[in-house]
Amino acid sequence: MSVASRPSTQRIAVLPSAVADQIAAGEVVERPASVVKELFENALDAGATSIDIAIEDGGRQSIRISDDGSGMSREDAVLSLERHATSKIHSARDLVGVRSFGFRGEALAAICSVSHLEVETSLDDGAGTLVRAAGGSVVDVAPIARRRGTTIRVARLFYNAPARLKFLRGARSEWRAILDVVGGMALTRRDVRVTMAHDGKPMVTLPAAASLRDRLAAVYGGEFAGNLLEVDDVLGTTHVAGLVERPADAGTATRRAFISVNGRAVRDLGIVRAAESAYRSTIPAGVRPTLFLDVVVAADDVDVNVHPAKAEVRFRDRWPIERVVESAVRRALGNFEAGATFGRTAWPTPVAPPPPEVVDVEALIAEPSSPEDGLFVRDAKEPISAPAAVAPAPVVADVPPLMQLRRTYLMFEHEHGVVLIDQHSAHERVLFEQFMRTIDHGEQPAQRLLFPMTLHLGPAEAEGFERNRDVFERLGFEIEGFGGHTLLVRAVPMPHPRFDPERCLRETLASITGDRETGTHARHEKLAATVACKAAIKAGESLSPAEMRALYVALRDTTLPAHDVHGRATIVQLTWDEIERRFGRR
Ligand SMILES: Nc1ncnc2c1ncn2[C@@H]1O[C@H](COP(=O)(O)OP(=O)(O)OP(=O)(O)O)[C@@H](O)[C@H]1O
Ligand SMILES: [Mg+2]
Q: Which of 46, 186, 395, 519 sees the fewest Cβ atoms within 10 Å?
């Protein structure tokens, strides 16, 4: 039986091209902000150095973008509105490692199919072309005079797509979305001058900027930009650069996360998560730091053609890239300058670790470590004069003179200002890292008690101990069950002579009871942090000069000296800048 004899069963028909175009447009053009994004990218691809954006009614009435880029010939201007018309690639092979933002030849056609669109363009100052189109069809082509560059005006967006129109938000939220999109692109291309006006009012002027920090200062203000920490690391073919928030500032203002990959602003949760995980143990869980990161990878390691609005990319192998992001951010957090500042003052560009201040060497040499100075001598099995087990503090010339204030803070000066260290937080950070190392790599030297200590525990604490027995043992506790809920403690770690093992153990067990079962690493971190907190010297204990120096050196050698394990600052600094400002010297 032939198909023709059963026409009533045919239900499939090819859609008219106008309908097909509108459907395709839906993927590219969701709201005014997506139009702005496409037009802005086209201007950048055309080599513009200056882009002016004028929006009416949140883009619902009109969107106009002018650039000083290459412009188009009359023929190209007409052709640019056709689907699959592009000057940016010629074959599928060109897609690999494509450097331009555009490559599909879709955007203008898509926008044109759902709006009234005008193109004014010129290759040189002088004779140019005006193309007017509506609903995807060219209405008029005429010569005009204009300077080099292109202006595209999109009016009455979605006039012929009522379903889309219904989903548009109020002018304010559409404007905000446009600001976000332009903000992101302005951060990736800081060399381009950008202005924006809304309903005739100039709203944003971003001059071309030399650096990300300068551009951020123009977008969000100098104080905000000045307080961010510089990230800059290369590993293999991956380069991660940018600015991130100091842990002490995280959570204090609106959180922003901006990621670009090979110069494209993208959403990439994996990269954001990797960067955030670098803040582990410097900020409380759940607090999310502000991040501005440019990730550059080999062009053929990334596929940019995976998302209709090009808002996402796909990596061939994302794991190593995320690891570089994490370690780069971690390193940025790992110097003294990452500490909180009084008076929000801009740090000069990347700052070196505390400068060698060659001072007091004689005093150091004249002061051999004595048992009282053994705050950081933990290993009581070894002779007490042996180098301290915690970051031995040999006679070093690069320790500045330190002063203890209120038996709580150590103070010193360095190149950029005056620094205060909280002795408890600092020691906590030192012990935490040391404990994590012993948990991961080996046992902690312990001190046998002459008389074993008995601890009577509640059922929950006893259960907490059993669950973490292995970790306690690695930390240097030698403990036997003694029937019921009684523990017999035979040996304890010796973080310092003033360490009170019984109190430490009790408080640690009390604070870990009821913990939900988490991953092994998280459990180790939690326990190491708790023991570190309980074992660290407290505020109010006076320290000898040698102890202060040992603490300084030990802290400096940690991976995150500026933060304790709860996310609080260990270091606070008052910069010379700020001091001079307060004294009216500048
Ligand atoms: N502002 C502009 N200045 C100069 N040429 C432009 C401009 N905007 C568009 N064009 C030209 O029009 C062509 C079509 O633009 P369109 O945005 O539709 O596609 P595309 O940028 O090539 O790819 P995509 O759809 O991925 O954005 C471009 O390839 C470019 O040659
Ligand atoms: Mg384009």
A: 519
Ligand 1 close to Cβ of residue 69 (< 6 A): yes
C-beta of 128 in contact with ligand 1 (< 6 A): no
Q: What is the mean pLDDT of residues 267-286?
A: 88
106 CA: nearest ligand 1 atom = 25
> Can you tell me whether residue 293 is helix, strand or coil?
strand
Contacts of 47 (CB under 8 A, 6+ apart): 69, 70
46 lines ligand 1 (CB under 6 A): yes
Measure the CA–CA gap between 242 and 236, rounded to whole angstroms.
Answer: 18
CA of 275 to the centre of ligand 1 (A): 34
What is the rounded average pLDDT of the residues 365-375?
32
Q: Which of 160-169, 347-356, 373-382 has the highest mean pLDDT?
A: 160-169
- Give me the mean pLDDT over the 181-188 stretch: 91
Ligand 2 centroid to Cα of residue 43, in Å, is 8
Give the confidence band of 515 by pLDDT, cuts at 50, 70, 90: low
pLDDT at residue 17, as a whole number: 77
- 357-364 long-range CB contacts below 8 Å, 24 or more apart? 357/398, 357/400, 357/414, 358/397, 358/398, 359/400, 359/401, 360/399, 360/401, 361/395, 361/397, 363/545, 364/395, 364/396, 364/397, 364/399, 364/549
> Which ligand is located closest to the Cα atom of residue 111?
1
120 lines ligand 1 (CB under 6 A): no
| Tokens linked to 288 | 């999310």
Q: What are 41-70's pLDDT values in tens digits?
A: 999 999 999 999 999 999 999 999 999 999
Cβ neighbour number for residue 209 with a 10 Å cutoff: 20
Q: Is the CB of 104 under 6 A from ligand 1?
A: yes
Report, as an integer, the average pLDDT of 452-464.
83
Percent of the chain with pLDDT over 90: 41
Ligand 1 center–CA 155 separation, angstroms: 18
Q: pTM for the whole thing? A: 0.67
d(CA 375, CA 378) in angstroms, rounded, equals 8
Query: Ligand 1: which residue has its CA nearest to atom 26?
Result: 102
For residue 79 and ligand 1, the question of a CB distance below 6 A is answered with no
Mean pLDDT check: name the lowest of 37-41, 229-233, 552-556.
552-556
| CB distance 34 to 316 below 8 Å | no
Ligand 1: does its nearest atom lie under 6 Å from the Cβ of 34? no
As given in the structure block, the two tokens for residue 1 are 């039986």
Cβ–ligand 1 distance for 100 under 6 Å, the answer: no
| Ligand in closest contact with the CA of 109 | 1
In ligand 1, the atom with minimum distance to the C-alpha of 28 is 25
CA angle (83, 87, 90) in 5-degree steps? 90
Task: Please work out, in degrees rounded to the nearest 5, the angle formed at the alpha carbon of residue 184 by the alpha carbons of 178 and 186.
Answer: 95
Q: Reply yes or no on whether the pLDDT at 351 is more than 50.
A: no
Among the bound ligands, name the one nearest to the CA of residue 152.
1
Is residue 67 in contact with ligand 1, taking CB distance under 6 Å? yes
